[in-house]
Amino acid sequence: MKRHFLLFSLFTIFTAGAVLSAGGTEAFQGPGCMGSCTDCHTLTKQDAAKLLKTDKFKAEIKDVRTGPIKGLWEVELNQGDKDFIVYIDFAKKHLVEGKFTPLEEIGKSAELKKIDLKKIPLEGAVVMGNPKAEKKIIVFDDPDCPYCKKLHEEIRVILKKRKDVAFYIKMFPLPMHKNAHEKSMAIACGKSLKLLDDAFAGKKLPKPECDTKEVDNNLKLGAELGIKGTPAIIFPDGRLLPGYVDADALMGLIDNPE
To answer: Is 234 in contact with 137 (CB distance < 8 Å)?
Structure first.
């Protein structure tokens, strides 16, 4: 398909060139798009929703904008707790899925988003390691998230080797885990590392012993910071890394700030 599209594009270019050279610009007087492509082509959220059958897949169109490549619309969707991007051609005939990478970025590490650390209070966090440690890493955690559990074990590996690092765990229960909010409340009430350990070990936790606002405040803060999943790791220089990494990779990121 790509080969056919390329051949068609080249044919169009050569044909247009021949017409212009034969009769000058006056030779091409028919209807056409001039200036911005969006002067002739439009795609509303309603149009995109109909084309992508969002009602069938329980998805929502968040935004429609011109894509990074001419001739494509970039459509941002939400489905449950996930946001993703697809592309629709201007002719509204094809769906393009995937990521466009500028050639100059090939081989480069992805740049991490930076968070203003002043916005994140640490008083209500569960601390793993020495609170006086030089390097403080913040982790937004869900007690029922399997990748948070894996990261929890990697943190323990790091703390056995490093005394200059501490992890501040902010409870961030995801809506998909129906019991996670109550567990998070129980953990946050006493800032209890034992209960956090128990949660990741699959043990039953006691009912929350207080009515702390810590968890709900974390959820609100996470939304403001653009945190949509767990674990979410924030380094001392403010870099935000979404998702799980092992101990070696994590220490490499901690020890090598940008």
So the answer is: yes
Angstrom distances, CA of residue 3 to CA of 6, 8, 10, 92: 5, 9, 11, 20
Which secondary-structure segment (H or E) carries 181? helix 180-189
Instruction: Provide the 10 A C-beta neighbour count for residue 220.
Output: 11
Contact at 8 Å (CB) between 235 and 253? yes
How large is the average pLDDT for residues 54-59?
88
Query: 31-46: per-residue pLDDT in tens?
Result: 434 455 666 789 999 9
Kindly tell me if the per-residue pLDDT of 3 is higher than 60: no
Q: Using N-to-C axis directions, what is the helix angle for 193-200 and 146-161, rounded to 10°?
A: 130
Measured CA to CA, the distance from residue 196 to residue 184 in angstroms comes to 8
Contacts 24+ apart (CB under 8 A), 20-27: none
pLDDT higher at 99 or 5: 99
CA–CA dist 149, 142 (Å, integer): 9
Q: Would you place residue 105 in the very low, low, confident or very high pLDDT band (cuts 50, 70, 90)?
A: low
Residues near 250 by Cβ (< 8 Å), separated by ≥ 6? 154, 158, 233
Whether pTM exceeds 0.70:
no
Local confidence band at 96 (pLDDT 50, 70, 90 cut-offs): confident
Task: List the one residue out of 137, 136, 143 whose CA is nearest residue 171.
Answer: 143
Cα-Cα end-to-end distance for the chain: 41
Give the whole-angstrom CA distance, residue 177 versus residue 142. Answer: 9
Identify whether the C-beta of residue 62 lies closer than 8 Å to the C-beta of residue 83: yes
- Number of Cβ within 10 Å of residue 183's Cβ equals 24
User: Which H helix or E strand runs over 19?
Assistant: helix 2-23
